[in-house]
Write a structure and sequence with these properties.
Layout: H1 2-28, H2 38-55, H3 62-86, H4 98-106, H5 122-141, H6 145-172, E1 176-177, E2 180-181, H7 196-219, H8 223-226, H9 236-259, H10 262-284, H11 288-306, H12 310-315, H13 320-335, H14 346-353, H15 370-378, H16 380-403, H17 408-428, H18 435-452, H19 456-471, H20 480-483
Antiparallel strand pairs: 1-2
Length: about 500
């Protein structure tokens, strides 16, 4: 017995260290200008690697092992292609012709390779490691239900803090970004990010988390109890909780509107619609045609509202410059469809793609479409594998949210909505390529997939323990008010 306690103590200590390392990266990655500096990339990569190694020995269900195996297989394929691209003379007919021209003009004797660089850029390596370690760390932490809930709780409050700071900075220090001069997007809320679109995706994720929590609190009330809400003292706490969660969601949404980001607003609205539909469907179990009809009406209303909102109404959905860049990317993909131009080489390649008629203003170091940039750099097969993996993650989250019978449906629906927001926004912008958003997203995605693939028996057992705790030994069914009280956790 004593030996068992001795073994349990270090295991609990290691789990606590893993949890707080992940929370630190999740909460603080957006703080320092989005962590775009290589120093911060290295710091977060080290911390998340430690978190991953500490949690590697934890127990996993069969479904969780399959998800991790698929993720590691995709990561290994991506890394293998990146290595092949910089290895000399692996597939000679795919070698970049720039090497032959350089040897001819400069009199060099450099071995040709597929990539236009002799080695993989450190930025590409760092961002790859960040995504892998963030996802796996969030996944391993969430194998414990309590730790997973705490992770999501910190995500909610940290994003709310960034929203409050962003609005305060817009009023009191509009010409500063933290302590540095604000050189771009003056008049727009950027919080701690340089780019307002990345700030919008983070704030949109916060809005989805808070609104799902507010809706989950509202769902804990039966319709018959609404008219008694202000008459029964025990219901006051529930009403106050709903109001607080709704206000927090509105703060994040107002901050999102102040960013002026078209893509962030549209994708957040669609992600929130998906999350709410999942929660309503889980609760009411309506027929498919009813869900489809209601969703279509809601989508039409959102589209009508967005078409008259801010920059969307005045400038449309996508500007002409981006369409031109997308055309150049498609031409580059056509030229190198199999293995691409090399990991992290888009900024080097793009000047050769620009035509004389393209605007000379601005530096296009991103394609403003993550999936197109991946296809340019890594080739069509890797890009297709990533699209399939993203689709599979959405399917897993949606199915789990629809089947969940306890408060996990709130977190699962919210993370599914955040995945929709992030995937859609990555089609028209580069927020997932900024570490300050990449880390929170990957941690939450890993957390959601771990929750979605946990054993059903574990979820039922945890739910039974909660019912016993609420009833204090009683055999009666807990009331809706008891189920919504803070003693059960706040649902996310």
């Amino acid at each position: 017995m004593t030996r068992r306690l001795q073994l349990k103590f270090p295991m609990e200590m290691f789990k606590s260290i893993q949890l707080w390392l992940t929370i630190a990266a999740l909460s603080l990655a957006p703080l320092f200008f989005g962590s775009v500096d290589q120093l911060w990339v290295a710091i977060w990569a080290v911390l998340l690697s430690l978190s991953t190694l500490i949690g590697a020995a934890g127990p996993l269900s069969a479904a969780q092992r399959r998800v991790l195996f698929g993720f590691f297989a995709l990561a290994a394929a991506y890394a293998l292609v990146a290595i092949v691209q910089v290895a000399p003379r692996v597939i000679e007919h795919l070698d970049d012709p720039i090497w032959r021209r350089a040897n001819s003009v400069l009199g060099l004797d450099t071995l040709p390779r597929i990539s236009s660089r002799a080695e993989i850029p450190p930025e590409a390596i760092g961002h790859f490691l960040l995504f892998v370690t963030s996802f796996v760390s969030g996944f391993l932490v969430a194998t414990s239900r309590r730790s997973g809930d705490m992770l999501i709780r910190f995500a909610r409050y940290s994003i709310l803090a960034y929203a409050i700071y962003g609005m305060a900075a817009l009023v009191f220090t509009p010409n500063l970004l933290l302590w540095a001069p604000k050189l771009a997007y003056r008049g727009s809320l950027t919080a701690t990010f340089v780019n307002h679109n990345t700030a919008a995706t983070l704030l949109g994720a916060g809005a989805i988390l808070w609104f799902c929590l507010a809706y989950l609190s509202l769902q804990s009330l039966r319709y018959s109890s609404i008219r008694l809400l202000l008459l029964v003292p025990s219901n006051e706490r529930v009403a106050f909780t709903i109001i607080l969660h709704s206000v927090a969601g509105l703060v994040c949404f107002v901050a999102l509107l102040l960013t002026g980001s078209r893509g962030g607003l549209i994708c957040t609205a669609l992600g929130l619609l998906v999350a709410i539909v999942l929660m309503v469907t889980n609760r009411l179990r309506p027929r498919f045609w009813y869900v489809a009809a209601s969703g279509s009406v809601a989508l039409a209303l959102i589209a009508g509202w967005l078409s008259q909102t801010g920059r969307i109404g005045s400038k449309g959905l996508v500007d002409d410059a981006r369409w031109s860049v997308y055309e150049y990317c498609l031409e580059a993909i056509r030229q190198r469809p199999l293995l691409g131009a090399g990991a992290g080489t888009f900024a080097d390649l793009f000047p050769s793609l620009r035509s004389d008629g393209f605007s000379g203003w601005g530096v296009w170091d991103y394609a403003h479409s993550t999936i197109l940039e991946i296809a340019v750099e890594m080739g069509i097969p890797i890009a297709a594998m990533i699209v399939l993996a993203a689709t599979a993650s959405l399917v897993i989250l949606v199915r789990a949210a629809l089947r969940s019978g306890d408060h996990s449906r709130g977190s699962l629906a919210a993370i599914a909505g955040i995945a929709v927001l992030s995937y859609l926004h990555s089609i028209v912008d580069f927020s997932l390529q900024i570490p300050g958003y990449l880390i929170p997203f990957a941690v939450l995605l890993g957390c959601g997939l771990a929750k979605a693939t946990s054993e059903p028996t574990q979820r039922r057992r945890a739910r039974t323990r909660e019912f016993i705790a609420v009833g204090a030994g009683s055999t009666r069914e807990p009331t809706p008010v008891e189920l919504s009280s803070p003693s059960r956790g706040d649902g996310l």
